[in-house]
Amino acid sequence: MSAIPTPTANAIGADIINSEQGYQDEGVAAVDALHVQNRYGEERARRLRDDGDNQFVDISLDEKFQSFLRDPWVDTAAVKDIGSMFTTDRCQLLILGAGWGGLLYAIRMVQAGVRPEDIRIIDSAGGFGGTWYWNRYPGLGCDVESYLYLPLLEETGYIPRHRFSSGEEIRSYANLAAEKWGLNNSAVFQTKAEKLAWNEESKEWHVELSQQRTDEQPKTLKVSAQFVATVNGVLNWPKLPAVPGILDFQGGVFHSSRWDYGLTGGSPTDPSLTKLQGKRVAIVGTGATSVQTIPHLARWAKQLYVVQRTPAAVDHRGQRETDLEWFGKNVATSAGWQRERYRNFHQHFNTKEQPAIDLVNDGWTNAAKGMVVIAGNPAGPKTMDELPAYMQELLAIDLPRQDRVRRRVEQEVKNPDVAKKLQAWYPTWCKRPAFHDEYLSTFNRENVTLVDTEGKGADRITADSIVAGDESYPVDVIICATGFRAPFTGTPAEKANITILGRNGVSMSKEWARTGPSTQHGVLDHNFPNLFLAGPWQASLSPSNLFSTDVLAKHAAYILTEAKRRANGKPFAVAPTAAAAEDWGTQVMMRSPPMAAIAGCTPSYFNVEGGIDRAPPEMQMIMARSGVWGHGVEDFDGIVEAWRKEGGMQGLEVQV
What we know:
Belongs to the FAD-binding monooxygenase family. InterPro entries: FAD-binding_Monooxygenases, FAD/NAD-bd_sf, Flavin_mOase-like. GO terms for molecular function: flavin adenine dinucleotide binding; N,N-dimethylaniline monooxygenase activity; NADP binding. It holds the Pfam family FMO-like. Keywords: FAD, Flavoprotein, NADP, Oxidoreductase. This protein is α/β, with parallel strands linked by helices. Among the domains are: 52-58 and 237-317 and 391-455 and 465-480, no CATH class; 76-128 and 183-236 and 486-567 and 574-592 and 627-655, FAD/NAD(P)-binding domain (3-Layer(bba) Sandwich), CATH 3.50.50.60. It is 34% helix and 16% strand. It has 24 helices and 24 strands. Strands 2, 3, 4, 5, 6, 7, 19 and 22 form an eight-stranded mixed β-sheet that branches. A five-stranded parallel β-sheet has the order 9-18-10-11-14, with helices on one face. Strand 20 and strand 21 form a beta hairpin.
């Protein structure tokens, strides 16, 4: 196994890390809460649009835009032919998705006794990594501490090079994990499932696969799998702004998740964008991608236009190399250190009880109380009647933090007019917070122009310009950093762009739209036996999404192993009973009030561009039943661990 180099030591100790952190809100002047809430309402109002999520083009669903999905990274010669990977047209476990989520499902299954040769992992990408395979833009890194985000650190012995890992390190580590657990020969790349159909008689899934290797005719294959796991990621289908004229542009244009280094110069390991010298560049969007990329673009482009609808709330990051001695003394202190670090991290997402020591001490733990709407809060409201008072409590907690972030803009950006436009007027929980140490100061450069569209976005694109309001900006290159399909919409079928037919031919897309999911613990649906899910529906969320995925991966591995033991060598179907699924859905709904605060937010992918607010009452009931566990990921993990420890497979039915 080829190891990834570990970091070299440098003299950074825990005392320096704590003193330099700069996250505390002490000393912030009293905030006029009424004024701030009025500003929040104004920002939300100018962002609301009748077209909602339709203001974007879902690239994968529109044939006119398929060129934007071209894979810049694939080595087709290294991609195995689909026929050679299914010599018997069947496998025991088929995993949809070769990102970190798919790897965690595969690894937990291997640890539970499933042989790697009995697993097939398919992905339309050309390699492992998922979002870290596709996204390789300059400046790419994870905004969650690497000692938390990178899973299995104790098992691999790997030490992240930096406090916040680069995208390249995360992708390389995924390859290391695949090699360590013998999964390299299980992967079938440039391949996707088109249809899953349950066969009750044989107790297996019939799957239609297609492989589209670059510059080759597509190949199709029908296979059978006893089990399928849908682990297609959270942010995986890129979207473009539905701006008239985007296909008429005569310069270079691409989505940030398919970065064109042939056009910009540089590489995923070298952000020297030399081919942009003398070029006028527009980047559309000011989310997490742009926050990381804009400082690099500004260093090389003759002129950079940043097209903004809503500013990001950008806090201090505090990147640094990992000091090996400090890591051993302060992070990897004893067996189980990573799980304990996660527990400490998650405890901050609670408005009542806080840990005495902050092991992580980063922007997330500082912002945690403002993110309880997304992560869940065991101290949240028990009924919707308690929600207004809870919202006032959250706003009071969050106001000093967001005020400090806005003041940081004034301190970093010299032009007061530009600084004003870069200040975020919405609560922390309405958008994923951003962290960067150079983004704001980049707007002090003479070659950087903020094009603030007051929430509307660009109006149109011509052959050589991007138009916003009354201004036309001639550009040579347009980069669309406009994100991905909203992760909380649709079903696992939509997330994978496939058809899933379960018992009696029931369509997952139609059934979930009608009643919502019918799962126990969010991992198996009553109507779809032997089909393991990966959340977030009726499961949990963590700001570090891989933890949530791993909770379900461990759960799925236990269920498969225990069901197989009970079936005693016979083909079997495992799924929750209808009664157990109904009970779990009720429990999820009863714990949904803490999550309701996302409605009423400034539009973003969190609330499907304001679409959640417009849902009729009957749909809101389904959404509450379909949502995430409102008491937080640690509470959820405790429930499923206790269920496994009890050992009776309560609520699940194994049919032979």
